[in-house]
């Protein structure tokens, strides 16, 4: 999740949305997706990196930056980057979400170590379980 943003958090404008603890899921899929994002926040803030990575598919990638300056890193590289890192997420807000069949996207904004950060997670549902297959940090 927050591999690169753990080191360098991006500044973002204050955006409107619903805080994660105030969302009201319309169905089981929404509830599962919101639960994953909540677990991300909890696991990162507690430094529980193996539990955090368990929320991702084996072939998941994190993309940081955009255009020719973007960089993709693997799940293994994500794990290596967070070793020994301390990061606290607060004030997570859901900006938007889309669910279409077994694919979903959710964008959030949060404060991480005092800096505003936006991220988007792409999820897939396999064998009844939602997992993140791509994370984008602008």
Taking all Cα atoms into account, the compactness measure Rg is 14 Å
Largest sheet: spatial strand order: 1-4-5-6-7-2-3
Global structural class: alpha+beta
Determine the mean pLDDT.
Answer: 84
List low-confidence stretches. Answer: 1-15
Global outline: globular
Alpha plus pi helix count: 4
Gap between N and C termini: 12 Å
Strand fraction equals: 35-45%
**Element order: H for helix, E for strand:** HEHHEEHEEEE
Sheet with most strands: 7 strands, mixed
How many strand units?
A: 7
Fraction of helical residues: 25-40%
Summarize the topology.
Blueprint: H1 3-7, E1 18-19, H2 28-46, H3 49-53, E2 56-64, E3 71-74, H4 75-82, E4 89-100, E5 103-112, E6 115-126, E7 129-137
Parallel strand pairs: 2-7
Antiparallel strand pairs: 1-4, 2-3, 4-5, 5-6, 6-7
Written account of the structure:
The chain has a seven-stranded mixed sheet. The radius of gyration is 14 Å and the shape is globular. It contains four helices and seven strands; from the N terminus they run H-E-H-H-E-E-H-E-E-E-E. Strand 2 (56-64) and strand 3 (71-74) form a beta hairpin. The chain is of the alpha+beta class and 138 residues long.
What tags apply to this protein structure?
138 residues; 7-stranded mixed beta sheet; 4 helices; globular
Short description:
The chain has helices at residues 3-7, 28-46, 49-53, 75-82, and strands spanning 18-19, 56-64, 71-74, 89-100, 103-112, 115-126, 129-137. The protein has 138 residues and is of the alpha+beta class.
């Amino acid at each position: 999740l927050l591999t690169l943003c753990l080191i360098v958090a991006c500044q973002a404008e204050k955006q409107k949305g619903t805080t994660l603890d105030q969302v009201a899921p319309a169905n089981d899929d929404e509830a599962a997706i919101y639960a994953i994002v909540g677990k991300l926040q909890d696991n990162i803030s507690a430094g529980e990196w193996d539990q955090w990575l368990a929320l991702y598919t084996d072939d998941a990638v994190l993309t940081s930056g955009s255009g020719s300056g973007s960089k993709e890193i693997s799940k293994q590289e994500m794990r290596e980057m967070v070793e020994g890192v301390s990061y606290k997420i607060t004030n997570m807000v859901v900006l938007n979400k889309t669910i279409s069949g077994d694919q979903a996207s959710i964008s959030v904004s949060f404060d991480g170590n005092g800096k505003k950060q936006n991220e988007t997670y792409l999820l897939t549902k396999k064998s009844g379980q939602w997992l993140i297959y791509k994370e984008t940090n602008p």
